[in-house]
Write a structure and sequence with these properties.
The complex is a heterodimer of chains A (about 130) and B (about 375). Chain A contains 4 helices and 9 strands, in the order E-E-E-H-E-E-E-E-E-H-H-E-H. Chain A is an alpha+beta fold. In chain A, the strands form 2 sheets. Chain A has a 6-stranded antiparallel sheet with strand order 1-2-3-9-8-5. A 3-stranded antiparallel sheet of chain A has the order 4-6-7. The relative contact order of chain A is 0.26. Chain B is of the alpha+beta class and about 375 residues long. Among the domains of chain B are: about 15-55 and about 150-245, Probable tRNA modification gtpase trme, domain 1 (Gyrase A, domain 2, 2-Layer Sandwich), CATH 3.30.1360.120; about 295-375, Beta Barrel (Elongation Factor Tu (Ef-tu), domain 3), CATH 2.40.30.110. Chain B contains 9 helices and 19 strands. In chain B, the strands form 4 sheets. Chain B has a 6-stranded mixed sheet with strand order 10-11-12-9-3-13. In chain B, strands 14-17-16-15-18-19 form a 6-stranded antiparallel β-barrel. Chain B starts with 13 loop residues before the first helix and ends in a 10-residue tail after the last strand. The chains are: A alpha+beta (about 130), B alpha+beta (about 375). At the A-B interface, strand 6 of A face helix 2 of B.
Chain lengths: ~130, ~375
């Protein structure tokens, strides 16, 4: 499973990209594939604080509900409005269907996150493949 | 997605599922497909066209001999004496306390010949229970034939047209909960039953469990259904279909701590049948004493939120009064539905309840079940 190399990843299966001090967060293709058909994405409000490794929302598939963990700390600058009516966009393209944009408190936090190669190795270990 | 443990049992179609890139899960000790193309698409295929399920993990236990009816009557709650040859009935094995060992289908194959289809995860328990209770009955032979059969379920409004291409048997002449034997896709003496667990019309067929035969019939059904948009369907869709159709699942709505009276299965509980049976006295006493304390109810979420198995049910005052046994988005109805146990007074009041969905208390209304009922054709 090849993960985009320009993104950073968490062990909770989120991805993040950064331009300047603005981070964009979503869940990985592996996460959407494991969840199956996504029917609901519960996101915070613009202006809400998020904290690294803390939940900021949840994603529900037909089968299960899963927490969303923020890769970094900061303030929510935007949420993807499309997901309110079309949560299945996450299944279609998990790396395009972003969930929140975050004004980062500390850009250096990015260095603590997994690279694509590290995340792929983590999944390989988790799935035993 | 856990590492596959070597001791998981496999159906004859395991390689087929893997070739179709199904997501596989451990279900009752079996390595089973949970979904192929996607749960919602599979669910909708069954509601609007046709779907094919490998349900070979189900168990088959046969009773034969001149006293087989006596044994079946003793061990099951429905009245098997009402069955004609070629007819099946929903029933359950009960403990002496009246709780459910398993829910089953009883097929009358011949005058002294019954086939019980039981759940996969409970099969060994069921067989041991049956042997311990009626195994020494004179004039009866009980056999576990589970490993001899592959079972395929062809379900949906186009199931009949699909299967009809593979057999000369007049499928339209088989009534609901009836079965016959015939050739299907070249396989002789196939049990063809008009039964299912989806809330749609459909058939369940029982074929020899060797890989070659199982794959041949699977592929033939897929080819026959192609023009209708047939999809292979996994246990995920099987669960949402049965939930929409208001059917109980063992380990959720029923278990060895729940009676059929609580579970709303009185229609299949024949306390007055012409034979005593395990659990009868306890259930009669429970009825005479006013009935069970709790009742299974159908819930539809009014506010945003999805009830899941095990979530607490609360009253207006915030007190916990019950538990969700199955909860899910309903892909066809496009609402969020659940089964839950609540005190009988609450069930009878029909008042709204609340489900504790993680941090939120979400209002739910009590609705009649089945949640979904297909239009009669």
């Amino acid at each position: 499973m090849a993960c985009p190399t320009h993104l950073r990843y968490t062990k909770e299966h989120e991805w993040i990209s950064v331009e300047g001090t603005l981070g964009t967060v979503g869940i990985t293709d592996y996460a959407q594939s494991t969840l199956g058909d996504i029917v609901f994405v519960d996101l915070p409000k613009v202006g809400d604080p998020v904290t690294a490794n803390q939940t900021f929302g949840s994603v529900e598939s037909v089968k299960a509900v899963s927490d969303l963990y923020s890769p970094i700390s900061g303030t929510v600058a935007a949420i993807n409005p499309e997901l309110a009516t079309a949560p299945d966009k996450v299944n279609e393209d998990a790396y395009a269907a972003w969930m929140i944009r975050v004004e980062l408190a500390d850009v250096a936090q990015m260095d603590t996150l997994l690279t694509a190669a590290e995340y792929e190795a983590f999944i390989a270990e988790e799935t035993g493949k | 997605m856990t590492e596959q443990t070597p001791e998981l049992k496999k159906t004859a179609l395991n390689a087929t599922h893997r070739a179709l890139k199904a997501k596989m899960v451990d279900f009752g000790g079996w390595d089973m497909p949970v979904e192929y193309s996607g749960l919602i698409a599979e669910h909708m295929a069954v509601r609007t066209a046709v779907g094919l399920f490998d349900v070979s993990h189900m168990g088959e236990i046969q009773f034969r001999g001149p006293n087989s009816l006596d044994a079946v009557q003793r061990i099951t709650m429905n009245d098997a004496s009402k069955l004609e040859i070629g007819q099946a009935q929903y029933s359950a094995l009960l403990t002496p306390n009246g709780t459910v060992v398993d829910d089953i289908l009883v097929h009358k194959l011949g005058e002294h010949d019954y086939l019980l289809v039981v759940n996969a995860g409970t099969k060994d328990k069921d067989y041991a229970w049956i042997r311990s209770q009626v195994g020494v009955t004179h004039g009866i032979h009980i056999s576990d034939y589970s490993s001899y059969y592959s079972q395929l379920a062809i379900q949906g409004p186009r199931a009949l047209e699909t299967l009809q291409k593979l057999t000369k048997v007049d499928l339209a002449a088989i009534r609901n909960y009836r079965f016959t034997f015939g050739q299907v896709a070249g396989v002789h003496n196939t049990l063809i039953a008009r039964t299912g667990y989806s809330g749609e019309d459909g058939f369940e067929i029982y074929i020899p469990s060797d890989v070659a035969t199982s794959e041949k019939v699977w592929n033939a059904v897929m080819e026959a259904g192609a023009e209708f948009g047939i999809l292979p369907c996994g246990l995920g869709a099987r669960n949402t279909l049965r939930l929409e159709a208001g059917m109980p699942l063992y380990g959720h709505e029923i278990s060895d701590s729940i009676t059929p009276l609580e579970a709303g299965l009185e229609r299949w509980l024949k306390l007055g049948k012409p034979a005593d049976f395990l659990g009868r006295a306890a259930l009669q006493a429970l009825k005479d004493a006013g009935g069970p304390a709790n009742q299974l109810v159908g819930l539809e979420m009014v506010e945003r939120g999805i009830a899941r198995d095990g979530y607490p049910v609360l009253n207006e005052a915030g007190e916990t009064i019950g538990t969700v046994t199955s909860g899910s988005p309903a892909p066809f109805l496009k609402t969020n539905i659940a089964f839950a146990y609540v005190p009988r007074a609450v069930a009878e009041s029909k008042e709204d309840v609340f489900v504790q969905v993680r941090a939120n208390r979400v209002r739910a209304r009590q609705v009649p079940t089945p949640f979904y009922k297909r239009a009669k054709s």
